[in-house]
Amino acid sequence: MFLSFKEFTACVLAACLFVSCQKESRERFTSVEVTPVYIDSVNVRALAPLDENRVWFGANHGKVGLIDNDTPKLAIIKYEDKLLHFRSIARTENAVFVLSIASPAVLYKIGFNDKKATNIEMVYHESGEGVFYDSMRFWNDQEGIAIGDPMDDCMAIIITRDGGNSWTKLSCDVVPKAEKGEVAFAASNSNIAVYDTHAWIATGGSNSRVYHTPDKGNTWEVYDTPIIKGGPMTGIFTIDFWDENRGIILGGDWKQQDNKVANKAITTDGGKTWKLVGENMEPGYRTSVRYVPGMDGLGVVAVGPPNGIYFSGNGGEAWDKISDDVFFAIEFVNDSIAFASGENKISKLVFKK
User: Fold this and answer.
1) Could you give the CA distance from residue 259 to residue 86 in angstroms, rounded to a whole number?
2) pLDDT at residue 114, as a whole number
3) Looking at the DSSP assignment, which residues form a beta bridge with residue 183?
4) 156 close to 136: Cβ distance less than 8 angstroms
5) In whole angstroms, how far apart are CA 98 and each of 19, 245, 314?
6) Would you say 260 and 280 are in contact if contact means Cβ atoms under 8 Å apart?
7) Which residues contact 247 (CB under 8 A, 6 or more apart)?
8) What is the mean pLDDT of each successive set of 10 residues along the chain, which is 353 residues long?
9) What domains lie within the chain, and their CATH numbers?
10) Which of 167, 201, 214, 245 has its CA 20 to 30 A from that of 239?
């Protein structure tokens, strides 16, 4: 039997699609082993792993610590006898940074050597009406960024260029104007993503938008997204990027967490345009999303209340629930191990294929 060119091409395309599906199935997570490593009466929304056995965290009631295997090394941080609440954390090779929500916003640099802290110092302070920082990331050991709710008509953005020793707030002449009622959410230290020299900031409230800088904060653009908006607790709660083009945003409506409409979207052009995925499909409201290392941007894990851990093997198009455990935040260490945190707990997650 001889095939025409058109029939031959169709067969080749079908074979390619089959191979693609097979590749996806080989890289799917089917379950996850969840092992608690820290239990306490705190709300933990900020994690910074060092390796598969050690993770730094920031929590409410001034609590900051390093979990070494299942041994906690803790500190209670006060500012002028006031317990601070930490929802932003980031680390460099020899230091970890924690930033408190609300006013006063206080940013501490904690030096550490292997398994113990060596010193702590305040490196930034800001007080006033509307001060509320949400998330923090570093591009490298010298340059980092933290973002917060709008002040003076633009998102509050502070940047360091000297390893976190000093921080400078960007002028609203540089950052695009925020819309009335537009906010950022401090749900999991993940409404900011960085890759190479890029950073992306996700917002919610009156509008669900993504701010993008290609040059570490020197210039900015802002792009609309199709994620649900309009309510005080609607919008994008978490963002991640695999490379400078491919990214994902999740969120929804905190007051209607089972709503599965307009709460998941992906981009392939660096955030300029976004496409809704998984419409009317689980999961609903999510607080933290992360690409899985080693899966070429196809493997994605999302956590959040009210109902467990979800995995997508095709970049976010479709999802499977692989655990009922509820967490607020997740950070991967490698292609199968992550740490996750939630109400009263931090756990180590080992994903199974």
Assistant:
1) 29
2) 77
3) 204
4) no
5) 45, 29, 34
6) yes
7) 193, 200, 239, 240, 241, 266, 267, 270, 271
8) 42 38 62 97 97 97 94 94 96 97 97 88 96 98 98 96 98 97 98 98 98 98 98 98 98 97 98 97 98 97 97 97 98 98 97 95
9) 5-352 (2.130.10.10)
10) 167
- In single-letter form, the type of residue at position 22 comes to Q
pTM: 0.92
Rg of the Cα trace of the chain? Answer: 20
Structure tokens at 243: 């490379």
